[in-house]
Design goal:
The structure holds 2 protein chains of 2 kinds. Chain A is α/β, with parallel strands linked by helices. Chain A has 11 helices and 8 strands. Chain A folds into 2 domains: 211 residues, P-loop containing nucleotide triphosphate hydrolases (Rossmann fold, 3-Layer(aba) Sandwich); 48 residues, no CATH class. Chain B is α/β, with parallel strands linked by helices. Chain B has one domain: Rossmann fold (3-Layer(aba) Sandwich). Chain B is built from 5 helices and 5 strands; from the N terminus they run βαβαβαβαβα. In chain B, strands 2-1-3-4-5 form a 5-stranded parallel β-sheet, sandwiched between helices. In chain B, helix 1 packs across helix 5, helix 2 crosses helix 3 and helix 3 runs parallel beside helix 4. The chains are: A alpha/beta, B alpha/beta.
Chain lengths: 312, 131
């Protein structure tokens, strides 16, 4: 186990895969390995790809990864799909669109279930991005689950966030304004081979006209993953965006926010683990819940007691 | 926390019949496993590389075309070559008894024929995962 992190740093696929499994299952060993790789991270460009379900995110990621490979860049893909809230199982199907990349050693693809997280990604995505970064992947593409209005956690981790829309959403553009529409660094109207593209573009333009506070007008790109159109232009625009960030302090600010989110997540996981998994405290928590049910105690006082035990 | 069983369900070769693979994938999902479905027309190399990246416990191969002796064998061989000895390989499809014997010798731990209740597959995997 000692040399797992050093093998990851050498880019060994098997070790990368193993360390990801460790972090996903939150085993004690993972933390020790993760501590050793952090100083080797920070070089990768992390690109988040989010959008409603069926908008063609996986196919778009395949096309992007394919072009980046042509440029000689190494690529990591993290594809998140929902975990069942009932069985805890998941059907991870994003790889289907990317199988052509499976025989390329310059690409590492990992599918993940959300495992109870509701923001469109899963909490170990931070770890997986660090692992792929440390392993030398230059471009990391993260695919969120098909999102609704406020599953916007991707923005906490990505340097560049692509919001993928499709023609035919019509008026629902209006309804998704509040969450999803605010996090885009680049809008991508995919399936642009279909009718209705102009309408979607016009509606996004109209929305952008209303918010005039940005020094950078958010670009709207039209792509067709099916007809392989607009991908080169999209890659250029992604490049422009990272240059824009790096010209100002924005890049540093974003990275700092990512580390804040990552740190918060680690603490949250450890704390919850301590309260709910550790044999002794779990018993006390259960009896407090019993008291709350019988109206002998209220939830706030119970929380005071639990936190009191930890903080003492 | 209990580690989730991860399974790669793959369709090797030129066979477009994936109803069975999907039924099994769904059943494993409902049993609490994480199922990575690769889709159709995969080469042995693609399947084994995907299995490595996904760090799966199980590779499930489905084939109804009759080419199992070549394609299942190729996967088993590659798995051995890559020293992924802790990955359980199972297969399913229209596979004659005498072939099953040979496949088992080659490293396909179990072969499920038509009519196998999905619960049996779930139980088999839960009992036989190697780590």
């Amino acid at each position: 186990m000692n040399d797992l992190s050093s093998k990851v740093l050498q880019g060994d696929a098997r070790s990368i895969a193993r360390l990801i499994t460790l972090t996903e299952n939150d085993m004690l060993n993972a933390a020790e390995e993760m501590k050793k790789i952090h100083k080797h991270t920070g070089k990768a460009h992390i690109i988040g790809v989010t959008g409603v379900m069926g908008s063609g995110k996986s196919s778009l990621i395949f096309e992007l990864a394919y072009r980046y490979r042509k440029q000689g860049k190494t690529v990591g893909v993290i594809a998140v799909d929902p975990t069942s809230p009932f069985s805890g199982g998941a059907l991870l199907g994003d790889r289907i669109r990317m199988m052509e990349l499976s025989s390329d050693d310059g690409v590492f693809i990992r599918s993940m279930g959300t495992r109870g997280m509701l923001g469109g990604i899963t909490s170990s995505v931070y770890d997986v991005a660090e692992i792929l970064d440390a392993a030398g992947k230059e471009i990391i593409l993260i695919e969120t689950v098909g999102v609704g209005q406020d599953q916007v956690d991707i923005v906490k981790i990505a340097d560049t966030t692509l919001v993928v829309l499709v023609p035919g959403l019509g008026d629902s553009i209006q309804t998704i304004k509040a969450g999803l529409m605010e996090i885009a660094d680049i809008f991508v109207v995919n399936k642009a081979d279909r009718p209705g593209v102009e309408q979607v573009v016009a509606e996004i333009e109209a929305m952008l006209d209303l918010s005039n506070k940005s020094e950078r007008r958010i670009p709207i790109l039209q792509t067709s993953a099916k007809e392989k159109k607009g991908i080169t232009e999209l890659i250029d625009e992604i490049e422009q965006h990272i240059k824009f960030l790096k010209k100002s302090k924005k890049f540093e600010i974003r990275r700092r926010k990512r580390y804040e989110a990552e740190l918060t997540e680690i603490i949250r996981k450890r704390l919850m683990g301590y309260i709910f998994d550790e044999a002794k405290l779990r018993k006390r928590v259960d009896s407090l819940i019993d008291q709350i049910s019988k109206k002998e105690l209220d939830p706030y006082s119970a929380a005071d007691e639990i936190l009191g035990r930890i903080l003492k | 926390m209990e580690r989730k069983i991860r399974v790669l369900i793959a369709k090797p070769g030129l066979d477009g019949h994936d109803r069975g693979a999907k039924v099994v994938a769904r059943a494993l999902r409902d049993a609490g496993m994480e199922v990575i479905y690769t889709g159709l027309h995969q080469t042995a190399e693609q399947i084994v590389k995907s299995a490595m990246q996904e760090d799966v416990d199980v590779i499930g191969l489905s084939l109804l075309s009759g080419a199992h002796m070549t394609l299942f064998m190729d996967v088993a061989l590659l798995v051995k070559e890559k020293k992924m000895s802790d990955v359980l390989i199972v297969g399913g499809g229209i596979i004659p008894e005498e072939d099953t014997v040979k496949l088992k010798k080659a490293g396909i731990t179990e072969v499920f024929g038509p009519g196998t209740p999905v619960e049996d597959i779930v139980k088999f995997i839960e009992k036989n995962v190697k780590r």
